[in-house]
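DM from R.C. (forwarded with permission)

"hey, sorry to bug you on a friday — could you get me a structure for this? deadline for the figure draft is monday and I only need the backbone to look sensible"
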Amino acid sequence: MTSITFFLCEQMLATSVALPMEQFHAAEAMHKAASRSKMVPIEFRLASVNGKPVKTHTGMMLQPDCSIHDIETSTITYLPALWRNPKSVIKNNQAVLPWLVNQKQRGGVIAGVGTGCCFMAEAGLLDFRPATTHWYYFDKFAESYPRVVLKRNHFITRSDNLFCAASVNSLADLTVYFIEVFFGESIARHVERHFFHEVRKAYPQVSIHEALHAHPDEEIAQAQSWIQQNAHWDIQMSQIAKRLNMSLRTFNRRFKTATNLTPLQYTQNVRMRTAGELLHTSNLSIAEIAFRCGYQDLSHFTSLFKKYFGTTPSQYRTTVRAKLFSAE
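My reply, with the result:
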């Protein structure tokens, strides 16, 4: 059973709960409509330290389903953004700290947003690990948690199963990533378009790579960098393996272990992201975009694009340009 826990506490932003929950519900509905196979539904739980209602910073009362102590394991735990200085909130919710440590030890994912990331820092989970928080609290965060490696230029950071998002917008992007893990790329792209049809670009592609696909295999990271720079060419994986003094079999195995993708899947993802960006920002024909992304066969490119984004290149271009305005 996949379970997602939303931790509730005073001074929280309600959107920290509502937005990711609605994204996941949409993904479930899309999966059900697109697949005949039965899927065990995701269990959503709202939990406070003592199971009592909490008041958000706007005065809205949220009713939890249970206390955190009633939850033994959680696949993902969301920590909410907090309004203003988080110190008093953390002081009043000390009981969640050992619970978070226990969830981490059990292999659960923990995702904090904005100053909610302070809960992980306070629990010592972020010591000597990369992290981010809301930009307004950077200096206070660095002063309060000097052992945390604060990444001021990243909207999302990841270290093992610990994720930090700088804002609610970044949390929405991170949730799309989680949806991709659970439901696949096609549904993730559908959710992204349904919630953000103007196609926000919250942070550079390099930040996506560093934040969500970091791993310790330096040679495979070199291969990824080479693929990103040369994706428009006909890439032979055997040549990349040779560059790294590996057999093709070893290269394929290590690449899949490091990235959870085959080299071909990774290359296609890089090409599709480039295609989406060109459709958004350029007036190049679809045939020329296909060529620039390394595809000679336009029908093959269109088929791959539709599989990745859930729509054709021409339909995608129409959607992403729907909110572009001109003074002319």
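R.C.: lifesaver. The chain has 15 helices and eleven strands.
me: no worries. Residues 15-34 form the longest helix (20 residues).
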